[in-house]
Amino acid sequence: MTLPVYRPMLAQPGPPPTGGDSGTWSVEVKWDGMRALIYIDGGRVRVRSRGGLDITGSFPELRELGGAVRAERVVLDGEIVAFGPDGRVSFSGLQERMHVRRPVRVAELARRVPATVMLFDVLHIDAESLVRRPYRERRERLHGLVAPGRHWQVPEVFSDAEAVLEATRRLGLEGIVCKQLASPYRPGRRSPTWTKIKHAQVADVVIGGWRPAGSPARQRVSALLLGVPDGSGRLRYVGTVKTGFTDAARRDLAVRLRALGESRNPFTGRPEDEPLHGVRWVSPELVGEVRALEWTANRRLRLAIWRGLRHDLRPVDVGPTLGR
Asked: I need a surface site. Which of 2, 59, 180, 196 has the fewest CB within 10 A?
């Protein structure tokens, strides 16, 4: 019997629990990483991204998890992160590893930028699916299921949302996630029983156009035009990003986007806040991540900063819900 394939449950933006509600919620750190479901069957490990892509080969150190679980067949949910030299979570370090598949390069990066998976849920043990069980029970079983290891942790949970939110702000972490202890796991769905509170707006976006700079021989990106799916298969324009790129990223993006060139505007309507002279439209196939000061009242990104391509996501994985 093969393990069932799950899609990860997702959190909605929402307020933290307060007062009398605090005892019915779990409060956890929101890690600035890459969501993953880990399938372990007879010691063999497969790692899948939020969008269902097999990323096992990119993170060989996680294969050691196969010998650390006290069951034959397990499905775990967690967040893959990388830590910088200062001990802080480094999204840029993790990004180096997301799209690499060549074994020699993967091995080099695994030594230089080792990955750690923060495990926070278990969906399946042996012949038993746990998705209908309350989160409190799933979390208790997770603690007894996974032995300690170098490349995984089962992070602590808390009950005081305001205190943890302030602590994550001081430590430069992304924010918190609050989960109702009685909630079942809802595969592939966003649910108000899991709420996220972030210190800055972070959003997954789809690239629909770009503005080039430089000569044809040394072309690079000067700006990207961004959108999010509107729920009906169309791409809704949400703004541009012009900062946050390294020189290497500007050159790499230009190469990728030239190969996706299209003659037609992929957005619903004409981007009205961006001069379009010199803009090149592309097939909306690449997903990226930006950090912005806020979403404006007309649903545009304000002061967006580029964080990088999300090789683990496809445009279909970027829902109409803003942010991630």
From this structure: 2
